[in-house]
Design goal:
By secondary structure, the protein is an alpha/beta fold. Helices cover 44% and strands 14% of the residues.
Length: 126
């Protein structure tokens, strides 16, 4: 049975990347066929996927491990762009899902990162 584990945080800079890669490495050392996935990054030079690839000895392309870069400034995009991004993430995920029995998935910097103000205020009112 294929499994996923999503790691996220309530605030940035908490060591989520270090913990995610260390956990995946522990699972790999225990003999599990584990992969790493970070669907979205918000940094133009995000080395998290490159570090995961190196530390875990993965042969996947970094563009599959971390397929999408969206900055805060690009969040207000057209629906067609959202569909394209969703498709890109889904395609990368399917490639990794088919290859690994277990995926450790690193989220954006925080749980609410890249969430629009409309959705954030909607969540806070419930």
């Amino acid at each position: 049975m294929k499994k996923n584990l999503l790691l996220t945080s309530l605030s940035p800079g908490t060591g989520k990347t270090t913990f995610t890669i260390a956990l995946a490495r522990k699972f790999r050392l225990d003999g599990l066929n584990v992969g790493y996935f970070k669907p979205i990054t918000d940094r133009t030079e995000d080395t998290d996927a490159e570090n995961a690839k190196t530390v875990l000895g993965l042969d996947d392309d970094v563009s599959i491990l971390c397929p999408v870069m969206i900055t805060q400034f690009e969040y207000d995009m057209e629906e067609a762009q959202k569909d394209e991004i969703t498709k890109k993430i889904n395609n990368a995920y399917k490639q990794l899902r088919d290859k690994y029995e277990f995926l450790v998935i690193e989220s954006s910097p925080t749980l609410n990162h890249l969430r629009s103000e409309e959705h954030t205020s909607e969540l806070q009112s419930h």
